Amino acid sequence: MNGTANHHQEDNRSSEPIGDGDEDEDEDFISLVPIDNGGDDRGDEDEEEETTTGYSNNDTREKTNGKRRNNNNNNKNGLPPWMESYVDHFRVNPMVALHNEIVGFCSLMEPRKEEMKIREDLLQKFTKLAKSTFRNCKVEVFGSQATGLCLPTSDIDIVIQLEEEEETVKKKEPEKKKKKKKNISKQQELEDMENWDKPTGSPLSLLGKALRENWLDDLSYLELIENTRIPLVKFTHAPTKISIDVCFNQKGGPQAAALMNQYMEALSPLRPLTFFLKKFMASRGLNQPYTGGVGSFLLQMMILSFLQHRERDCFNNERPSQYSLGALLVEFFEFYSTDFNFVLTGISVRFDGFFFPKGSTDRKKNFWQTNRPFSIALENPLDPTFDVGSPSFRIDLVKRSFETAFKVLLSHVTQPFIPTKSILASILEPSDEMWERRQQVTPNFAAPPERQLDYYTNNNNTMPPRKRQKRR
């Protein structure tokens, strides 16, 4: 990392996620319990102050059938749903406050036991349908559902492993025999026409037909996508509002999920950072490669690569690898917005992580895109010749989003501080989904207050709107 990353070292040490600062504790341990830095709980005070999030401290609202109505409960002075109390910036290290907010966000957004039970029941129901449609098939789950990194609205990724067909044997037959088999009698043609409704055709069409016949009343959406590198069946289960993507004979998905679980065991910050950054990207519409942005697996690999090099930097400089999630988030945004060269450098997470030149002789064929030199080149750990970042585009917008978030967070965690009740809310505005989950977890928690967007909320530009208007 460059200067700013090193500038936070004193902040990082003071915000180490351990209660009493005992040096005998495991250096690799990162607490996911909010850190108490001795600050007073001022969540119940009536003090009013202007914040960068633009929240009103007095007004509250509750959504009921699309209408607003007043709520008499005080919403902790306008705090976001992942915070239950406010500690003054002058009484607590801001990196510690940011760490605690990330922990609170993960606790709020990770699926609860009853939600996981609903997903598992839906998976069992679909598995029965798949096995009744395809004999001796194997249904496997991969993606965020298999790694435990799924948000409440995340899709379920499923792969159906079918038995190897006899087509490979038929391809080896002599051409003469193939020509003889093309001479089909008229009687055979009539029999084929009579048996049109029997299960023949591609696996996608068979599964689509089975879903229409058995789940018609429970489907709100169904689509068969065939003209892609990996054909998919996409459908949404109406009662649970859960979307499912199904592919066939793709062994890489379950293998990638198993590999990701190993990485999360080795690097504990990987899970909470992935939780927050997935929501951060989704709030800006940058979480889908085919619409412009970074997919879930690519984002996880970027976070993993950053943590690998961060660990190596601490080891080489003989520094303990104790740091807060807040410091890691700030440095992640800094690294991929100002330090990393997307044009010249590729990423690999193999062998504890390394970088490589995209234009080198042995890499250029697979990782260099002449028409898109700014694209992310990231090596698939399961297939080193495949570029995970090749489908992604609008990377310049992703980079600007990271740069804006870095500058906004930096203004709240370095002196002179810009006072705010929630540092995290300055780059991620609470959504209606978050407020609903907060009230489900804590029924007495008040509804969201009326608020106005500040300059930086949902803004992907590096310059505040007022300054951009003056330049025009």
TrEMBL record:
Any single Pfam family the record assigns to this protein = PAP_assoc
Q: Where is this region: Disordered?
A: 1-81, 167-197, 438-472
Q: Its domain of life?
A: Eukaryota
InterPro entries given for it? MTPAP-like_central, NT_sf, PAP_assoc, Trf4-like
* Record-annotated PAP-associated domain positions: 324-385
Which ranges carry the Poly(A) RNA polymerase mitochondrial-like central palm domain?
98-264
UniProt lists compositionally biased (Acidic residues) regions at: 19-29, 42-51
GO biological process terms, alphabetically, are: polyadenylation-dependent ncRNA catabolic process; RNA 3'-end processing
Q: Which GO terms describe its cellular component?
A: nucleolus; TRAMP complex
Among the GO molecular function terms of this UniProt record, one is: poly(A) RNA polymerase activity
Tell me the keywords, alphabetical order: Magnesium, Metal-binding
Sorted alphabetically, which PANTHER family does this protein's record hold? INACTIVE NON-CANONICAL POLY(A) RNA POLYMERASE PROTEIN TRF4-2-RELATED, POLY(A) RNA POLYMERASE
Protein name in UniProt: Polymerase nucleotidyl transferase domain-containing protein
**Lineage in the entry?**
Eukaryota, Sar, Stramenopiles, Ochrophyta, Bacillariophyta
